[in-house]
Design a protein that fits this description.
The chain has one domain: Serine Threonine Protein Phosphatase 5, Tetratricopeptide repeat. It starts with 32 loop residues before the first helix and ends in an 18-residue tail after the last helix. The chain is 43% helix and 4% strand. Keywords: Cell outer membrane, Membrane, Signal. Its main location: membrane. This is RagB/SusD family nutrient uptake outer membrane protein.
Length: 481
């Protein structure tokens, strides 16, 4: 990533043809930020640029920031959920490394995700720095809150996948646009706690400065939901504080009766959706191609296919309706793909299917998790109980009166497959090493505990200056040295 006092922004008519939540900015380029962001209207374009970076470029070139379009690799494929259709055949070595727990520091996909999230952070900082310079800052409360929400979201994803607490290493903390004299900040890892302090501060600001007007933009309820996750993820998890934030999620969100309707391209931004990232059909700049890759109609032989382990367990325990929608058995080699990301685009590689980040089922299951706390079982009772059992019954399962920790972990696996939650869930529950080592052994893969955390990308290490001891300033995760 590169931080400077100048920004070249290409506004791409972002998302807006399919998601009326977004403004429709005119293209601008080669803009010097301190001359450009002078009004609330101009800052609004800056916020749209952050979403544009998060959306990512529909491209197969890893020099382009792909944003969340490559996130499934670091969450689903680096787990027991997904693999490639034809391992080691037509797919790049980079893709296969996620499947068999051998991701190297020079992995181009990992480097792309890392730089994409820091791009989001950088553009958020551009907006936030500009807000501080304008006289009428009181009128910019929403803009500030939205930028801080997006910065926190990017950092939350990064710290969970690249930060580790060994030797108190977190990530470089960049909370403003850096000058040339401050360049070393982007190569200096701070403690994990400092990163989480910023994440919490930013999401709290978002709960105060946002409402629930939008589903494809940051919202108050989305910020509260993320805060609940954060408080259950940090060391010494605070389940009581998580419940406080879950109680603040707006009552107008609701579970749909039919599981398949959640993901229907004709039913986007439905009542179950809290926060999604929008794409536009047949639009070169605003579409996504991961749907095509999942179905092996893109440039690879197919990625993010269900593992044999998941397919068997989902078929036996996940519920008939989830099975029908998650397992698309139309492959001549009995490889199972998901139907969640189907599209009505004329070109599968220019799909407009939105990516759902948060939906109300997540809130309901987080209630169960927070009420369980550090115990291994919880009674299904209270305000969330009926909704928890509705999630099960709409999946084709029976209602329950108690849930164990292992049952909740499995329930989330079946409910959210291919929604980029599996690795984050395993880490939050503290079972990533246990679950993935067993899966790797059964699959014939080598695995060690370090592989639940990705290495800092080599290109970032190579760009790092030397410290006063003549050593590379950007420290690699200890198990990857």
């Amino acid at each position: 990533m590169k931080y400077s006092k100048y920004i070249i922004i290409v506004f791409l008519g972002f998302l807006l043809n399919s998601c009326s939540d977004f403004l429709d900015p005119d293209p601008d380029s080669a803009i010097k930020t301190e001359d450009f962001y002078q009004t609330a209207e101009e800052l609004e374009l800056g916020v749209i640029a952050i979403y544009d970076a998060l959306q990512g470029v529909n491209s197969n070139q890893l020099n382009d920031n792909r944003g969340i379009q490559v996130e499934f690799y670091v969450t689903e494929m680096l787990s027991d959920n997904a693999n490639t259709r034809t391992p080691d055949a037509n797919d790049s070595a980079d893709a296969g490394q996620f499947e068999n727990f051998s991701v190297e520091s020079n992995n181009g996909i990992s480097a792309n995700y890392y730089s994409s999230m820091y791009r989001v952070i950088y553009l958020a900082n551009v907006v936030l720095d500009a807000v501080e310079t304008l006289e009428d800052a009181s009128s910019l409360t929403r803009i500030e809150a939205e930028a801080r929400f997006l910065r926190a979201y990017a950092y939350f994803n990064l710290i969970r996948m690249y930060g580790e607490d060994v030797e108190n290493l977190g990530l470089p903390l960049v909370d403003h646009v850096l000058t040339e004299e401050e360049k070393a900040i982007q190569y200096t890892r701070v403690s994990e706690n400092k990163i989480y302090d910023l994440i919490i501060e930013d999401f709290l600001n978002a709960t105060e400065g946002l409402d629930d007007t939008y589903k494809s933009r940051a919202s108050k309820s989305a910020a509260h939901t993320f805060l609940a996750m954060v408080y259950m993820t940090i060391d010494n998890a605070d389940y009581s504080e998580a419940l406080v934030h879950l109680d603040q999620v707006a009552s107008n969100y609701a579970l749909l009766d039919n599981y398949a309707d959640i993901f229907d391209p004709a039913n986007e931004l439905n009542s179950e959706i809290i926060f999604s990232i929008g794409f536009v059909n047949d639009a070169a700049n605003d579409s996504q191609n991961y749907s095509a890759e999942f179905a092996a109609t893109g440039n690879s032989s197919g990625v993010n296919y269900l593992t044999t382990d998941l397919q068997a367990k989902l078929s036996n325990f996940g519920g008939t309706n989830r099975q029908l929608y998650n397992i698309d058995d139309n492959d001549s080699e009995d490889k199972y793909q998901t139907a969640k990301h189907t599209t009505n685009s004329s070109d599968d590689e220019q799909a407009g299917t939105d990516f759902i980040v948060l939906r109300y089922a997540d809130v309901v299951m987080l209630y169960a998790e927070a009420n369980m706390g550090t115990s291994n079982e919880v009674n299904v009772s209270g305000s969330w109980a009926d909704n928890y059992n509705k999630i099960r019954t709409r999946a084709g399962l029976t209602a329950v009166t108690t849930i164990t920790k292992d049952e909740l972990i499995d329930e989330r696996r079946y409910e959210f497959f291919s929604e980029n939650k599996r690795m984050f869930d395993l880490k939050r529950f503290g079972v990533a090493t246990e679950v993935l080592s067993a899966f790797a052994a059964a699959s014939g893969y080598d695995f060690n505990s370090s592989e639940v955390t990705l290495p800092i990308p080599l290109r970032e290490i190579n760009l790092s200056p030397l410290n006063s001891n003549g050593e590379i300033a950007l420290i690699q995760n200890i198990n990857w040295r």
